[in-house]
Amino acid sequence: ADHIRTLTFAIADGATPSAEGRGYVLRRVLRRAVRYGQQFLGAKTGFFAALVDPLVEQMGGTFPEIAEKKEAVREVLMDEEKAFGATLQKGIEVFRKSAEALKAEGVEVVPGKDAFYLYDTMGFPVDLTEIMAQEMGLTVDVKGYEACMQAAKNKSKEDRANRSGVGKSFVLEAEETDALRTKMNVDPTNDDGKYEWKQGLKCTVRAIFCPERGFVENSSEVPDEEPVGIILDKTSYYAEGGGQVADLGRLRFNQMSSEDVSFEVQDCQSFGGYILHVGKRLSKEPITVGSECFCEVDYIRRAKIAPNHTMTHVLNFALKSALGDIDQKGSLVDASKLRFDFSSNKAVPPQDLKTIELTVQSAIQRDLPVHAQVVPLASAKQIHALRAVFGEVYPDPVRVVSVGAPVDDLLADPTAAAWGGLSIELCGGTHLTRTAEAGAFCIVEESAVAKGVRRIIGVTGDAAREALRMGEMLLKKVETLAGSEVAGAELEKEVAELVKEVDGSSISVLVKDDIRKELGKLSEKIKKESLKAKAEAVAAASAEGEAQAQAAANEGKNEGAHCLFLCDQMIDARGILRSTIYCDCARTRRRRQAPHQGLDGHAQNLPRRQRPDNLRRRRQGPLSALHIPTLLQL
Fold it and tell me: Considering the entire predicted model, what is its pTM?
């Protein structure tokens, strides 16, 4: 009862079971209940989701929100129950065999690697494994499990670092940030300059960090090929956060040297207020603590990121307007695209996608001003229609980004209904000054990424214009092919090439849907033409075979071991060639209807030595028309 109450109320409030954070707490609660119900009560998959109805009957009057969202809650629970059910029994069996082997050896502790295997492969939370172990008189090596978990996380970080080009995982743990503050007297980095564009901010190096060596005074202590992290007193770089990727660029040092001393910034991360500029030296001249440098952010790259971030805000507003109450589940904004994850248990209908896309495009065409201002968190929360990520912890004061109205106006009348028609969010990212700077917008993908979570990928600017142009070109190409006289094998080849081209193209998801519908019509046309051609070939072959058989009969060859076959053939609705065989034979006179692989039925009545060679082995699959005349004469 506690399990179903907890999950029902949490999901109705907008939470969903997932692999991290509060969502993982819900998943653990659910899986403990499902495991117990199936293993000890003999319940079938779906029993837990079915408990939603009686709970709503008892408590829906007092808490109407669970009655309103009953179907959504049940659907989420059913999906989770089915997903876990796919590995539950196998996981139970794996644990049982392992536990019995341990007890036979006199061991009372389940190794951490075994518990991690159940988590990583079977989806068993470690607390569930602990309960199962307790039921068998065992305990779990939790520290060993945590070590395996940390090793997996470290490998994942290294993989991400390798993909970023840095090659190492740069993380300032609490120990390092505390050392910066208390032992090295380094203040957190002032990053207010990240909102100023086209500036070469003068800064001072306050610390140099290397994962293997810790903090060093001089970069010469690190091999030239090794990346390092530099902490400055202030910076104009945007550190990765809020779904936006980090700025890239260079740090150019003002040193007394004939050589150009610069540092390539390949990543930028924030740890406890300290901005770590990660990268490699581009010269052999060492960099020392206390050196002065100038930030040279790649503003051309940032100019491609900013429209994607601003349009992510507008997309969030458009989704809520079209679909109602949705929650943001994550986002990614980089130079090539924007990606937005939101709560939904089903695909967004094409008509709603069209409305969403038009809403964003309209905001661009209206050239709305984009305002950003830092205000007290309490004041920001009073603004009507303010959207924030549920569960996110925001600083105080906080930055408000409004598309269409000055933040001061929002604060002056925070409850005004007019704000409901604007995109207003809490955000620390870099944005446009006006929406028209985005140029264009296009949705190129809508898909599912997890249970109850959908994802939209969009592009702006030149990428959006190219996606729209390419979509129109491909649609016109398909329509031209559909109106042409191309047929047969040539049409099949053209359709196959178009399908491949469309699947590999980044075009409007709406146009892609229209194209696939047209290609589906062409594929149906090809299928009908193919069946017609086969039927005509069969009819011609049958006529030829009957003529040959009749000629043989007229010559008296239907005596002894010879038979006369007359065959009517057709292709059924499934495309299978079927034959109706008429046999004029002294041994048997019967009619047989079967697929081609059954044509040897009559020959079974002959002594084995008298059966034709081509019928002594059962043929697998339909025969071509070329075989028919031969088989009709025995």
Answer: 0.70
